Amino acid sequence: MKKQWYRLDNAALIFPAIIRKNWNNVFRVSATLKEPVDPEILDQAIADLKPRFPTYFVRLRRGFFWYYLETITDAPKAQKDFAYPLTHMTRRELKTCCVRFLYYENRIAVEVFHSVTDGTGGLILLKNLTAQYLRLKYGVTIPPEGHVVDMEESPRKEETRDCFLSCGADRGLSRAEDTAYRLSGTPETGRFRYITTGIMPADILKEKAHEQGVTVTAYLATILAEAVDQRQKAEGRTGRKARPVKITIPVNLRRTFGMDTFRNFTLAVNIGFDPRLGEYTHEQICALMGHQLAAETIPQRMAGRVAKNVDLQQNLLLRLIPLPIKKICMRTVYTLSGENKGCLNLSNMGVVTVPKAMEPMVERFDFVIGVQYTYPNNCSVVTYDGKTYVSMIRGIRESELERLVFSRLVELGVPVEIESNS
Questions:
Q1: pLDDT tens, position by position, 183-217
Q2: Are 196 and 420 in contact (CB under 8 A)?
Q3: How far apart are alpha carbons 375 and 183 in whole angstroms?
Q4: pTM (two decimals)
């Protein structure tokens, strides 16, 4: 089969330039089945997916002006899950394949380099992999439904396009905003990542959010912001010494603009409050988070953010700069301003559904984003079959943030069951 290549989409351009030896932007989605995974059948399912999903089966290549993605010849084999989730993906590995397929006991996991796709795209890959695996193992008929596609059809153009290029406004939106408080701690040696997952009844969490008149995302952002503010106060940063507390929320633009793509189509907004203006009640923070999230994610403002990013990408001078110089520039800009407007990410996948034929065989889904270069903590959320899974990851030894978040949820009347890899 002839190799294909893809320009990196607008959101993907930054990631290859800012890879460090101890960090790169990788996330994980996983499905836990009711029975142990057969690795040979899983390998066949992976191979079956390759022709239908070319943008996932790619390796990172380096051009004269930009990095790009090139399809690989052979489908990768599934690996037994090793070490710990989100083990560093080296540049050598990225030159082979930008996606890992893993299994352990009843779990199928996919780890994805963020230049390939975002969380929604990763979930699409996982759902279809799980569906094909179940078809092969049990002979069940799983119809194309939702994100589970018809395996017999050819890839559709809209699945492989860079949608950022077609939804920008006529004018870019300014990125100017205050620098936020920065979480810190004692870095863990050996690149180990601690993951603590709080499992809670989705209906109770939703009820508590609706009591405050906000979405579940805004409600969880409130809990995170309260915990971050407590951390800041514990360090003695109060009054004029305090910094704004802001939670970074990735927004799925597929819903905003009614477009379908399997590639990246997400942009982030920062929402929060400024402790220098005074004390806030829980209800006030909920109101702020809810109003800001609603206001910042309307199509017009998101189109303005897209336009700002695309304008930079299409700048003639930037396009003509050779990649080594461009890489230095992008790293410098990212180091100075890339992550200083927020405290940590809250990435909510929302409610995951599968075709009814799959439901009896799938126990749960999990979603874990990695820590970032200067964000030692991050949080990701997914809901399936009446349970919400809130996964908090950290690359530092101090576990205070997780304790504050989950104890606060319990205090507010949301029962939480804790799982941890430490």
A1: 999 998 878 899 999 999 999 999 999 999 999 99
A2: yes
A3: 7
A4: 0.95
Contacts of 157 (CB under 8 A, 6+ apart): none
- How far apart are alpha carbons 313 and 304 in whole angstroms? 14
Of 3.40.50.1820, 3.30.559.30, 3.30.2170.10, 3.40.50.2300, which CATH number belongs to 174-420? Answer: 3.30.559.30
The rounded distance, in Å, linking the Cα atoms of 359 and 141 is: 13
On whether the CB atoms of residues 164 and 61 are closer than 8 A, the answer is no
Common-topology check for domains 5-141 and 174-420: yes
Residue carrying the six token digits 């779990």: 107
Q: Where are the domains of the chain?
A: 5-141, 174-420
* Identity of the residue numbered 330: M
Query: Alpha-carbon distance 103 to 259, whole Å?
Result: 32
**What's 5-141's CATH class?**
alpha beta
Structural contact between residues 271 and 249, judged by C-beta atoms closer than 8 angstroms? yes
Alpha helices in 314-356 (DSSP H): 316-320, 323-333
